[in-house]
Amino acid sequence: MVRQQSRTLAGFLLLASAIGAAAQAGRWPQVPVLAGPDDQERPDIHGTMVVWQEFVSEFGDYDIYVVDVNNPDEVSFTVLGNANDQTHPAVYGRRVVWQELVTGQDATDWDIRLADVTDMDAPIGYVVSDIPANDEEAPAIHGNVVVWQDTNGADYDVYGADITDPCSPLEFAIAPFEFDQKAPSIYRDTVLWQDNLFGDWDLLAADIWLQDRPTEFPVALLESDQQGGVVSDDVVVWEDNFSGSWDIYAARIADQNEVREFAIAAGPAHQRDPDIDGHLVVWQDDRNGNWDIFGHNLITGRTFQITDDPGDQIRPALSGTTVVWQDDRGGLWNVYMAVLAGPAVAGCPETPAGDLDGNCRVDFADLALLASSWLQSHLDVPRTRASESGARPERGPSRRTSATPVGRTR
Length: 410
Fold this sequence. Notes:
The structure is a single chain. Helices cover 7% and strands 44% of the residues. The protein has 3 helices and 28 strands. The radius of gyration is 22 Å and the shape is globular. The two termini are 38 Å apart.
């Protein structure tokens, strides 16, 4: 499973010094995670573990790269690969899942694989699902459950597997309905997917607390396409072309009978490929004529720009305040990262008294601001909070209501 390759670490070793310099300059450093000579695509991150697919020209196929960014001075990475393609990786903790092209006696199809990378020098591989002649694709993982889209050549369904014992995955159906159910996302007991039951893409979800009886409920059933959904806590984000361009919308699903939708980024430009973790949302945005990465704070309502390089930055993934993305500023696709900090990403619902720089804590930086203002005017400086969100179009009524029945049998 582990394919030996050499890789220069020079780009990533700049991270520690870059973070220090950025803190003094008041900006976020952007550095390649593991610079290489081949295209790196579809990054994902959880904690300090970053994964992506890479077309390795030396071998002529796609492999999965796994990097632990916990210690920039001693980068630990491994490559998961063999003679076939490994693509669409996802990571949770020290477990990595992906789809793998498998050639058998009767057919060649995509299967779901898993690796435990607790020991980066000796990953342990497992088979999650490998039904002959079925394509199992686009896996996602959270906790001890893996989900994916599955087809036998007819339509796509969503399946899952309990991997508490990875040697014996317990597979179960989540959305085995007519038409296509694709691109699943999972957070704890909530599984989200896009569904073309009504002729366009809508978002539906299911509570899988009882894995033998998933409880399905609608999330976004408007005209046009709602797709590329991701769930975190009780919030779902997705890309939506209701207004004619791609926008980022979200909904709170704590009450499944009253899903509340709201706009994150809606305007004449395109906003696509969102990700969410906790109170932060990121996406790719072409409002400046090329693709940049933007972010939004759900607590403060503040929208902020993360990248501004003239190249394209796409497919962001987020864990905590660390964001990774696919970036072509060097002439080929490499995976870059930034560690966000400061008022833009602050997570306190109300600013503490004395917090003058808006970072949710009172420290010497606030004292310095106070002293500076006092010397100028002998008066404390009143604080204001300005919303950075622009005007957003109102959405018309849905052709379907939240009461639309979605339970289906086959």
